[in-house]
Amino acid sequence: MTTSKVRLNQQQATREGATSMARIRGLRLGVLRSRDARLSIELGLATALGPLGGFVSNIVIARTLGASGRGELAAIVAALAVCEAVLAFGLPDIVARYIAKGIIPPGSQRTLAVGAVAASIIPGVVVALYCHSWSFSWPISIGAALLVPWTTATVIGRGVVLGHHAYRKLTASQLVGGIFRLLAPLTLILVDDPTENMGLAVVLSYIVAASIPIFWYRPFAGRAAPVRQVIPLLRESLIVWPVYAAWPIYMYLDQLVLSAVVSPADLGRYAVCAGIAQAPAALASGPRQILLARAAKSQNLDEIPTIAQSFLAAGIVGGAACGFLAGPILEAIFGPEFRGISAILGLLVAACGFDIALGMLNTGLLAVGRVRSSAINQGVALVLTAAALPIAVSLGGSIIWAAIVRLSASAVAFSLARLNVRQFSRSQESTSD
């Protein structure tokens, strides 16, 4: 009798396992064949123009302004990126989720955007002073300051567009921004003596261009909602805020730290590698936005780990290839000042693979309400980098140590996020049983 029961249990477990695998395969096929998947591919392909334009911009700036000029621009771009994330107050993802569920009070996005833009004015002034401290002229510094509230409104508007599932508008934004990013840097070649001011003007131009399709959608049309109606959204966004802000801060923290402890030329070399390595992150932007909307609606994370691990594997393989093979290519393309940086590029490409996978997992956790887990995962990467990077570099380490710290922090944070997703999936299976 005991043997029969054991065999019966084994057969039942086998059937349940086969059913589970069939369900997962069905989910994957459904994802691949769905309209959202097609739009995700379109958005990903449009987003690919950004990395292509960034690569061209890297080459043009390195050739026309040299490593020092590239380093000065990197310091400003990093500051602008951090402002964009911090001053959005976590609103884009929250607005997208509430709109996708159809439970947002009318006019809330307008009220929230006005408040966020107002809060970004003083940081904009700080950005102007920071730009001028790097010897940029006052007119271009003021232009960078005005971009701070502009991008704050843009990223919140992007959340509105995403919540309405208007993926074609997001695709248009990526297309316009990518085309400008590809063509605008070429103006530096057409002048006899290009300056850092002209380089920053080019950067500001393609950031503004990418926002035009978002505002064309009129994401903040209609009457503003009373402040009391948006307080619950604002309260929830402030909970999400550390997660939302930690990601770009982490992406640019190494360059911000290096700007204070290394020469502009070394910062320029590192920034070139970082710019190339971060290109795949733009390709993952489309799938991430689609996954956010899907997971928020289904409250299911089954397909996310597979997608995340695919990006991770590609990043590790790509990093190894760059580390061993990219040296002569980098020198030929960017110039002799950029000789000997292939190892840095390889480490940063592998780190980007972990970053993308981490972002996918955190997106899923955020969509199903595991905000605290997502915040801890991203916070771990941020804290490790902030603590270790200044020590490694200030004690005489070269910029390659910054890349090693970045890779280590990304790997630790990814491992923690993968554990959180596995725990959530097991809890869902237990509930369904």
Automatic annotation (TrEMBL):
Membrane topology (UniProt): Multi-pass membrane protein
TM region(s), chain numbering: 43-61, 73-91, 112-130, 136-160, 172-191, 197-217, 238-261, 267-286, 307-329, 341-368, 375-393
The UniProt record lists the keyword Membrane: yes
This protein's UniProt keywords: Cell membrane, Membrane, Transmembrane, Transmembrane helix
Localization terms from the record: Cell membrane
One Pfam family cited in the UniProt record for this chain: Polysacc_synt
Keyword field contains Transmembrane helix: yes
InterPro entries: Poly_Biosynth_Transport, Polysacc_synth
Listed name of the protein: Oligosaccharide flippase family protein
Native organism: Mycolicibacterium pallens
